[in-house]
UniProtKB/TrEMBL annotation:
Residue ranges of coiled coil: none
Native organism: Macrostomum lignano
InterPro entries: Alkaline_phosphatase_core_sf, P-loop_NTPase, Phosphodiest/P_Trfase, TPST-like
The protein's name: Protein-tyrosine sulfotransferase
Transmembrane regions listed in the UniProt entry: 459-483, 556-575
């Protein structure tokens, strides 16, 4: 009877597929966002992806203590242990906790960028603290340096809208935070927002004791839920003596004592197993080879550049060209050392540096030595013996990362996965029960460190899977019973003669007797009626099944074991209830092409490409470039998709409309699935079949967040253009745009600012799925940007993409309804870039930075007319100029 109850319960539970799984799929798709930002661009809480899987389940109240060591390379505890140095506390922590062996710092691998990236979850391009020392073009002559207390206390460096660090997030959401820095202990709590200084000691031992005392007796300060302590060692000593040296070994013993004092104090309080403790470093440290040094004064003439920051020798250099020279002059000269040196113009930084959104705090030329080389200004400067600043992919730059506590894996677990330091922020929010701000981290990526995987299927889905397998196994038994009950009677007789079975059906005994000519020596007739399963057992050849059904107590254990094995198998393979419940939307079309009927299918997981931006911003140019690729088809502009998305957004947001649709049962996933199917039909029929479908509509990027949800594998290209050039182009060509009064240029610029802000913010939320391309950069250096776009889309670059006007009528289809069609039929020309400056009034030029802060935020020159957008690629443009 119990078996039948389990079977029925399984069917009832499994019939209701958890609706949240499909939403979880969308929430966990984002990884490693590329989020350009600038001090002039304020983040308002919706500027980046918000992963709902990070929302904490109520119930976890364990405090979080974080120790950050400067320059503690991932392998130094093991190195010094092998040398006989006693680091018992680090060894205990490594044995009892979980270790991330491939944690990756952010570029540049300096202390300040990584410190802020860990505590905000943002790359340096978003929090805009790019180096340990830097200048800001808005504050000429003022230097930020990590050891300068004036810099650290100057609020001007932390601009309005600066990302909220973890301790303030904890305070804002009702918790109390303790920040222990060298020479300062700050308590954050309450509604006032102002920190309370409760200590001034620079002695780490005293600060550790203060932390223990506050954990033991909260007193008037209240219970602390988050504590952060920063150590300047062993990094300072490693720079002076090398990462593997006697001095660093002694310093590690000292740090080991501080760690041991904290562990011992928590153990005495009975809190060691109820506190989550994270010990990590900001970056690693590499040893210096004094024979591999590049001297800038030997590589560049002294009158070509300035080294304004007067930084000590290291892995990086920030250079400013002197009057009469351009960044390209320095770069071309330094390129002779390309095997030892990487050098970039900051207007063309590679995306992996994560610095391009912070140009006002970057030098015109950024150089970074390749390990093990070192940079210094001249031969007289003394060399350090340890250095950071190399690429974050360098093994010696990997930081130590280890944690223990009730929410972390234990017993010396090692997670050998590529993790990033920005992942710590969503992890800390999860542990503290905080609602995270938009960030670049990934909780799903770092959750293998935890005892419970975050982001997988819920308990209900797992429970339903187990019950489903019970029913599956029961069905197999029934099928077996049906098959075996139809076996010939001779076979039954032979089996019974061999095993001396008991037959329990009187008609069956009579039939066997007939077959055996009345001889039934080993068969006995049961005096009572038994269940049919026993009869099934007697009619099979399998001895285990016969014994199985003869012993009812053994049935449940065997079913449980087999079902458990099946459940584990299905879990690892992702079958059945362990796969997403939402089926993938698929559209199949029959298209007539060249007197042939072509049948092809496209699913919602197709890697669509969506191109958008403001009108007159290069969207048509970009789509012709992609149309020239043999594997991509964009087709002409339809204006259908953005209007449909606008309608869907209105249905979902307007109260009356949403109530009506909800009552009809179609709000949410049904309506979105129908919208996705409609869009897929439009894209499929807008031209011949292709391996990669693309759609270009200027205002499509105003709905990119929604599109990203409908099409999880889609990628987006946001075209940007100087807002002043946009206004001039719209007015001069009489382009009618809804909401824009062409008789009021200043009002048009303000509206441009508002609409571009929305598109740019949604592009940021999409992270690595969205690429922002400035029209001016594309025109100045087509080979570079065509290559970047191809790489972003995962496509090989093709020569035809550099001359799409030659493909018009073949690969590229144009429509006379698109106002830019006449321009993309011709080769690119530079004169259009700054032509607008001659047709605008001085009043408009002066008011532009105030009316459109996004100009500066996107890196446009607002101080000179005509503006400087950068240098044209001399190989492509043959030294032509647009000024």
């Amino acid at each position: 009877m119990t078996s039948w109850i389990w079977w029925l319960l399984a069917l009832l539970v499994v019939s209701a597929c958890p609706g949240s799984q499909a939403e979880d799929m969308h929430d966990h798709m984002q990884h490693n966002m590329h989020v350009p930002a600038d001090p002039g661009v304020q983040h308002d809480g919706h500027s980046m992806h918000h992963d709902h899987s990070m929302e904490h389940e109520s119930g976890s109240t364990s405090p979080l203590i974080v120790l950050i060591f400067n320059g503690l390379r991932y392998d130094l505890p093991d190195v010094y242990k092998s040398r006989g140095v006693n680091l018992s506390s680090f060894e205990t922590l490594l044995k009892q906790g979980v270790r991330a062996s491939k944690m990756r710092s952010v570029n540049p691998t300096d202390s300040m960028p990584n410190y802020w990236s860990m505590l905000t979850g943002l790359y340096p391009e978003s929090h805009c603290i790019p180096f340990d020392s830097f200048l800001d073009s808005d504050r000429p002559g003022v230097v930020f340096h990590k050891t300068n207390l004036t810099s650290l206390s100057d609020a001007a460096w932390f601009y309005k809208g600066f990302p909220e660090p973890l301790w303030l997030a904890n305070q804002r959401q009702g918790g109390k935070s303790l920040l222990l820095l060298p020479g300062k202990a700050l308590l954050f709590g309450g509604s006032s927002g102002s920190p309370q200084q409760i200590g001034t000691s620079s002695n780490p031992a005293a600060q550790v004791q203060l932390l223990i005392d506050l954990m033991a007796k909260p007193g008037t300060h209240g219970k602390i839920s988050f504590a952060l302590m920063y150590f300047t060692e062993p990094g300072d000593t490693a720079r002076a003596h090398g990462p593997v040296s006697k001095e660093v070994g002694e310093k590690l013993v000292e740090l080991d004592g501080h760690l041991g004092r904290l562990l011992s104090g928590l153990r005495q309080l009975g809190m060691l197993d109820s506190v989550n403790l994270v010990v990590m470093a900001d970056h690693g440290m590499a040893a210096v080879d004094s024979s591999k040094v590049l001297e800038l004064n030997s590589l560049l003439p002294a009158d070509w550049f300035e080294h304004r920051l007067n930084l000590p020798p290291g892995a990086q250099a920030q250079l400013w060209p002197k009057a009469g020279h351009q960044p390209a002059d320095l770069i071309n000269r330094l390129a002779k050392s390309k095997t030892e040196l990487s050098v970039w113009d900051v207007t063309h930084l590679p995306s992996e540096l994560r610095l391009s959104g912070c140009r006002r705090r970057l030098p015109p030329v950024y150089a970074r030595a390749n390990p093990p080389w070192l940079l210094r200004l001249s031969a007289g400067a003394p060399l350090p013996l340890g250095v950071s600043g190399y690429s974050a992919d360098t093994e010696d730059m990997r930081p130590l990362w280890v944690a223990r506590g009730p929410d972390f894996k234990a017993a010396g677990a090692v997670v050998d996965l590529p993790l990033e330091s920005v992942d710590f922020y969503p992890l800390a929010c999860q542990l503290l029960g905080l609602q995270p701000k938009p960030n670049n981290g990934s909780l799903a990526r770092i959750s293998p460190l935890l005892t419970r995987y975050i982001g997988g299927e819920g308990f209900l889905a797992t429970f339903a899977g187990v019950l489903l397998l019970f029913s599956f196994f029961g069905a197999i038994l029934i099928v077996t019973a049906v098959i075996t009950s139809r076996q010939p009677v001779k076979t039954i007789y032979a089996a019974c003669m061999k095993r001396n079975c008991m037959l329990v059906s009187e008609p069956l005994v009579e039939r066997v007797a007939e077959v055996s000519h009345g001889e039934v020596p080993a068969i006995k007739l049961a005096e009572r009626r038994v269940d049919p399963f026993r009869q099934v057992a007697m009619t099979t050849h399998c001895h285990w099944l016969r014994c199985f059904w003869h012993r009812p107590k053994r049935r449940g254990s065997v079913v449980a074991c087999l079902s458990g094995l099946c459940a584990l198998t299905m879990y690892w393979l992702g079958w059945g209830p362990f796969a997403p419940c939402q089926p993938s939307l698929s559209i199949t079309e029959q298209l007539q092409d060249a007197n042939q009927t072509v049948v092809y299918s496209v699913t919602a997981d197709h890697p669509f490409v969506f191109i958008g931006g403001m009108p007159r911003s290069g969207t048509t140019l970009m789509r012709t470039i992609l149309d020239a690729h043999s594997a991509v088809r964009c087709g002409v502009e339809t204006r259908v998709v953005p209007r449909l998305l606008q309608l869907l957004t209105r249905w979902e947001t307007e109260k009356l409309e949403s109530q009506r649709l909800r009552a009809a049962g179609i709000l949410g996933r049904p309506l979105e699935a129908a919208t996705a199917a409609f869009i897929m039909q439009i894209l499929m029929r807008n031209g011949p079949p292709s391996r990669r479908l693309c759609a270009k509509d200027p205002y499509i990027m105003a709905h990119s967040r929604l599109l990203g949800r409908l099409f999880p594998s889609a990628k987006f290209i946001l075209m940007l253009r100087d807002g002043r050039a946009f206004v001039h182009s719209a007015i001069s060509r009489k382009i009618r745009i809804t909401g824009f009064d062409l008789n009021r240029p200043m009002d048009c610029l303000a509206r441009w600012n508002a609409q571009v802000s929305v598109m740019y913010r949604q592009c940021q939320e999409l992270g690595s799925r969205c690429l922002a391309v400035r029209y001016e950069d594309l025109v100045l250096d087509p080979p570079l940007w065509v290559g970047r776009v191809s790489e972003f889309l995962g496509l090989p670059s093709e020569p035809a993409m550099l001359s799409p006007w030659l493909e018009v009528g073949r690969q590229v289809r144009l429509s006379d309804t698109e106002r830019s069609s006449d321009q993309v039929r011709q080769p690119l020309y530079l004169a259009s870039l700054a032509a607008w400056a001659r047709g605008m009034s001085p009043e408009f030029a002066l008011a532009a930075p105030r009316l459109a802060p996004m100009l500066e935020g996107l890196g446009y020159d607002t101080e000179r007319l005509p503006p400087r957008y950068g240098r044209p690629n001399p190989a492509y443009w043959r030294n032509a100029s647009y000024y």
